[in-house]
Amino acid sequence: MTADPQHWVVLPAAGAGRRFGGPIPKQYLPLRGRRVIEHSLAVFVQHPLIAGCVIALSPEDEWWQDTAYADHPAVKRVAGGAERSDSVAHALAALAGNAADDDWVLVHDAARPCLTTEDLDRLLAALVDEPVGALLAVPMHDTVKAAEDAFGARVERTLPRQQLWRAYTPQAFRLGQLREALAHCRAQGIAITDDASAIEQLGLRPLLVEGRVDNIKITRPEDLSLAEFFLDH
Ligand code: C5P
């Protein structure tokens, strides 16, 4: 008999947050008396189904050591990489000693401090008997325009929104399969901005689990005020 798969968490936190600006990376900004990253980790550290967390940090990181989780026994730190996907790959390599290839790994952005236990539970429930993996996501309610180019302010066309979802995190995949998917994208030179995209490149179709819209990623300065409001309500 094979044991039930365990659930691990990977937090890529090695980004410099250039779009946000400022001297402190966005995951370390103060939010409701704690750092953003402490909120992002808390929900996992307190959850009975989470076996452990690996956090990928920049080699220049000078803030992690002052957080509440710096010496937590369930949180291991590794060096991140040049891209988010490299940081995730490093964390997966560090998990390999303790985790099995068919264990679930939940990858969550360090800059998403408003994840609720209810959303996490919904994702974990969706993984039972799930062959591929799943991600929290929110259906698109706005009309979506494609611009002429990355810098263009003119509309090139309107995308049909009926099938569009915003991909949030956590995103959960089998350790072995996610490692294979990230290695495949790296070898092929395919740039990805989330883990589901890597799994899709293997020809697989992750499950979309509808989550709360307030599980935002801190990207712009005004997102901090929004996160503060969401944490209070
Ligand atoms: O830049 P973006 O907001 O998409 O980053 C998402 C997450 O990935 C953040 O938590 C960031 O710290 C992390 N990241 C990383 N390594 C990088 C770039 C980003 O761990 N090289």
Give a brief description.
The chain is built from 6 helices and 11 strands. The chain is of the alpha/beta class.
What does the largest sheet look like?
7 strands, mixed
Q: What is the CATH architecture descriptor? A: Alpha-Beta Complex
Runs in which pLDDT lies below 50 for 5 or more consecutive residues are none
The count of DSSP E runs of length 2 or more, i.e. the number of strands, is 11
- What is the CATH superfamily label? Spore Coat Polysaccharide Biosynthesis Protein SpsA, Chain A
- CATH topology descriptor: Spore Coat Polysaccharide Biosynthesis Protein SpsA, Chain A
* Overall body shape: globular
The separation of the N and C termini measures 45 Å
In total, the number of domains comes to: 1
Give the C-alpha Rg: 17 Å
The CATH class: Alpha Beta
> Beta fraction of the residues?
15-25%
Strand order of the largest sheet: 5-4-1-6-10-7-11
Computed structural class: alpha/beta
Helix content range of the residues, please? 25-40%
Number of helices: 6
Mean pLDDT: 95
Order of helices and strands: EEEHEEHEHEEEEHHEH
Site (Positions MEP for the nucleophilic attack): 161, 217
GO molecular function: 2-C-methyl-D-erythritol 4-phosphate cytidylyltransferase activity
Catalytic activity: 2-C-methyl-D-erythritol 4-phosphate + CTP + H(+) = 4-CDP-2-C-methyl-D-erythritol + diphosphate
GO biological process, one term: isopentenyl diphosphate biosynthetic process, methylerythritol 4-phosphate pathway
